[in-house]
């Protein structure tokens, strides 16, 4: 059996090849909007969408808008 305990779970070949999206949430109190650009700039995000009146849990506060964006991103 191969010992995977010392192997990094992330690599450019695997994780690095996946397009990343970020949904900016305008009413987020956990990661306030002024800090969200840092997340975008430092995590390799290539797709940015915004839901101005969503909070940190966009799937609860704005489920229809989030679902539409996720469908758009998946295309």
Automatic annotation (TrEMBL):
Superkingdom, taxonomy of origin: Eukaryota
Alphabetized UniProt keyword annotations: Hydrolase
Gene Ontology biological process terms from the UniProt entry: jasmonic acid metabolic process; salicylic acid metabolic process
Gene Ontology MF, one: methyl salicylate esterase activity
InterPro entries noted in UniProt: AB_hydrolase_fold, MES/HNL
Record has Protease as a keyword: no
Protein name listed in UniProt: Uncharacterized protein
